[in-house]
Automatic annotation (TrEMBL):
The active site is at residue 255. It comes from Arenimonas composti TR7-09 = DSM 18010. General (non sugar-specific) component of the phosphoenolpyruvate-dependent sugar phosphotransferase system (sugar PTS). This major carbohydrate active-transport system catalyzes the phosphorylation of incoming sugar substrates concomitantly with their translocation across the cell membrane. Enzyme I transfers the phosphoryl group from phosphoenolpyruvate (PEP) to the phosphoryl carrier protein (HPr). GO terms for molecular function: kinase activity; metal ion binding; phosphoenolpyruvate-protein phosphotransferase activity. It is found in: Cytoplasm. The chain holds residues 251 to 571 of 571 of the full protein. Belongs to the PEP-utilizing enzyme family. The keyword Flavoprotein does not apply. It catalyses: L-histidyl-[protein] + phosphoenolpyruvate = N(pros)-phospho-L-histidyl-[protein] + pyruvate. One of its GO terms (biological process) is phosphoenolpyruvate-dependent sugar phosphotransferase system. This is Phosphoenolpyruvate-protein phosphotransferase. Mg(2+) binds at residues 184, 208.
Length: 321
C-alpha cells in the first residue's frame, strides 16, 4: 500500500481519459514546502501567514517576513506560490493584540481582510515583504474573508501604493504578481461578477464556506455531523462558481479540507474543477484518486449530481462512480 503510493511520486496527476489536474500544496513550514516540492506539487496554493504572527507578542518585521516568503519562493524552485495575507481573528489565536480580545461572535467578527484593512500600515508592510519576495520567483497574493468589491478594491489600491513606494526606494520587487480572493464568505461567490475585473484567480476555502453557508460552527463538536461539504447547496454553489470562473478566464482552486479527501475527488471533478490545493500528507492519495477517475464520464454525470436532494443522494451518486 505504502510502496504503491510512493511510486506515485513521479507519476502525473492525470485522469484515465488524459485530463491533467493540478495539485497545489497547502504549506507553511520548511518541511511542508520541501515535501510539496518532492511530491511534485504544481505550486503552493495556500501559504497561511498567521503562524508568523502567532505565539508571540511583537509583530514580525518586514525583513523577517521577506526572508520567510523568499525561502518559500526559492523552496518551490520556479513553481508558483500563493501567499495569503494575514487571516488573524476568529479561530486563529493571536497574542500580538491585533485582533480584538473578545468578540460576541468571533466567526462573524473582525478577522481576515477586515482586520488588515483596519491596520493599513501593518498590511502595507506585509504586502511590501511579499512583493520583494516576488523578485525571486512567481508569487500570487491571496486575500482571505473577502465579501465584496470594496475590500478587493482597497487591497488593489494598497498594492499599487506599496509598489510605488518600492520603486521610489529603488527596492527590487516582482512585477507579475497575480491577485486573488478567497471565496469563503457566501457573498463573495454571489458578488464575484462585481469584482472579477480586480482578480486573476479565486480560491475556495471550503472550511469557512461550509461554516457560513450552512451556519454551522466549524469547531462545534456537537454539530460535527452537520458540518459537511456534502450538502446540495454547497455543490450547486461550487458548480456555478467553477463555470463562471471558466467563462471569465480566471483561475479557480479549492484549498479547504474538502480537497484533501480523496473520496471527494469525483465530486469536485464532476463540477469541473481542475485545481486542488491540499496539505502534502494527502497529496499522493488524492493523486491516486484523480488517476482512477474518468473526467468525461464524471462531467456527464454532473447534472444528476446537481439534482440530488440530500446528503444520502450525494453518497448514492458517489457509490455509483
Ligand atoms: C478555508 O476556510 O477553507 C481555508 C482554507 O482557510 P482556513 O482554514 O485557514 O480558515
Ligand atoms: Mg478560511
Amino acid at each position: 500500500e505504502q510502496a504503491q503510493l510512493t511510486r506515485l511520486r513521479r507519476q502525473p496527476t492525470r485522469t484515465v481519459d488524459g485530463v491533467d489536474v493540478r495539485l497545489w500544496a497547502n504549506a507553511e513550514t520548511r518541511t511542508d514546502v520541501a515535501e510539496a516540492h518532492a511530491l511534485g506539487a504544481d505550486g503552493v496554493g495556500l501559504y497561511r501567514t498567521e503562524f508568523l504572527f502567532m505565539q508571540r507578542r511583537e509583530l514580525p518585521t518586514e525583513e523577517e517576513q521577506f526572508l520567510a516568503y523568499r525561502d518559500l519562493v526559492l523552496g518551490m524552485a520556479g513553481r508558483p506560490v500563493t501567499i495569503r495575507t494575514l487571516d488573524l481573528g476568529a479561530d486563529k489565536a493571536d497574542h500580538t493584540g491585533l485582533a480584538l480580545r473578545s468578540e460576541p461572535n468571533p466567526a462573524l467578527g473582525l478577522r481576515g481582510v477586515r482586520l488588515s484593512l483596519r491596520h493599513s500600515a501593518l498590511f502595507a508592510t506585509q504586502l511590501r515583504a511579499i512583493l520583494r519576495a516576488a523578485a525571486y520567483g512567481p508569487v500570487r497574493i491571496l486575500v482571505p474573508m473577502v465579501s465584496g468589491r470594496e475590500e478587493m478594491l482597497a487591497v488593489a489600491q494598497l498594492i499599487e501604493q506599496v509598489r510605488a513606494g518600492l520603486r521610489a526606494d529603488a527596492v527590487q520587487a516582482g512585477d507579475q504578481v497575480e491577485l486573488g480572493a478567497m471565496v469563503e464568505v457566501p457573498a463573495a461567490a454571489l458578488a464575484l461578477p462585481d469584482f472579477v475585473d480586480l482578480v486573476d484567480f479565486v480560491s475556495v476555502g471550503t472550511n469557512d464556506l461550509v461554516q457560513y453557508l450552512l451556519a454551522v460552527d466549524r469547531n462545534h463538536e456537537a454539530l460535527a455531523d452537520l458540518y459537511t461539504p456534502r450538502h446540495p447547496a454547497l455543490l450547486r454553489l461550487l458548480s456555478e462558481l467553477f463555470a463562471y470562473a471558466r467563462r471569465e478566464g480566471i483561475g479557480v482552486t479549492v484549498c479547504g479540507e474538502m480537497a484533501a479527501d480523496p473520496d471527494n475527488v469525483p465530486l469536485l471533478l464532476a463540477l469541473g474543477l481542475r485545481d486542488l490545493s491540499l496539505h502534502p500528507g494527502s497529496l499522493l492519495e488524492v493523486r491516486r484518486a484523480v488517476r482512477a477517475a474518468d473526467f468525461g464520464r464524471l462531467r456527464r454525470r454532473a447534472a444528476t449530481l446537481l439534482r440530488v436532494h440530500d446528503r444520502a443522494g450525494i453518497e448514492g451518486w458517489l457509490a455509483r462512480t
